[in-house]
Structures
1.
Amino acid sequence: MKPLNRLFTDEKMLPFWETMAWNAIENAVLIDGLDIHGLSDDEVIQESFSLHLIQTGGEETDGEVADDGTKSIKEVAWTTNHEPDLKRQGDEFLAEGKHSFATLFYATWIEHWINRIILYRAIGEGMHPELATALIRSSRMELKVGRIWTTLGMSKFPRELTRQITRVMESRNAFVHYKWPSEDEESHNESINRLETEAQNAQETVTALINFEDSVFYEGRSESLRAAFREDWSKRRDQDLRPQGSESAQTSD
């Protein structure tokens, strides 16, 4: 098998291709405003990839036309998403009873989540990526889920989720800026119980935000879209690995 074919068919590469596929879907939905309503999972995947191909021939796209006649989308945001690793680490710390560290990682996950969506939506609204990044870096959390969120064309951020995020950030800050308070045994035990509750609440907030994104942008179909890509990739892989002539031989039988 040719090295290039091996790159596409090696099962160890599936996580990489799945990440690339989801990044394309994110770009299509959050930046280009792809309306997935009425589209099958396979159609969403195909449309997402086609939106991110630079067209030089006769195929029509919704992208802008450059001086040389080349058609392309407004912008592509290929980013490294650390959210899965942050959540995994937070879950591990929570299971180990390291509640402050769990809250720290969940809070970082929340910041990454909000910043990612704002970055994508800002680019989709025509803002230069560098300006969008500067906006994110200079804005407080309450502004990001408030005025900035709605200005980027999204519905008002749920009030309860805003309260949950605020509580997580306050817990994170209390740990990061620890003042070494003097406590008696009773206060110390109360503090341990409080930290455990705060860490559990932080985990629940992360789950709520995952579900919120899935519901608002993907009609609750995130998992089915990922599954559809995996199934299609597996079929294509089987076809590529099938010995030449085997298909025609089966047809003749």
2.
Amino acid sequence: MPVDTGAAAPSAAVPAAAAPSTPSAAAAPRIVTRVVFARDGQKQGIERLHVVRRQNTMNNVAGQVALNVALLALGVGAAGAGFSKTDLLGDEIPELANDPVAVNPGMDDLRDALSVIATRVYTERAAQAQAEARTDGSTPEEIQAAGEVPTTLDTPLHPRAWQLVYENLSTDDGLYRLRFAAEMGRAGFLRPPMLCAYESEPLTWTAWSAQNWQALREARSQAVAHCTQVLAAFADKRW
């Protein structure tokens, strides 16, 4: 499947001793090994924040009922597939059309945070491998190769939900929770993907959008910090 490795990713392995060459670069987090983003068959639209309102579920239920009535009239069994409100994509938020806060964190902030950690992990591994190569009779070429740090992590990041989801269907209380989830890895019997999930406290739509969506910006940062901590806990053994 196609993956986005980011424009900053180099095309060849980078020596472990590589260092920023300018004062401004030295102040920024050092990224050599970049985490890649993979859509992994997710529905179109996950790249931007969506809101799932009560009406979205009501419309879905009404559509399912109409389909079942039509099938029964034709003598066909009902298509009784259940669903959760979290299965819905929802609607885009026009007020945030050009605001970076609406970008799925898995595509930028979380990916960058994990890339910094991946760089540390693989730089340390390269240093250890190179030290061993210097003592085991390896050739100069093999010693140099042992110290090279990969430019991309072979464990892809799969962003999932990025939504404001209504709290109650039966009561129109105007409350919404911010939901975010992401996985790292490839599905397999022995090594299933690593999952992180974040859910905020419920707030009214007015509270979310107040002061230029300040509550959303704070919750987004919390989601990134939470998922960075959860996914990085697997770094030494699973990356």
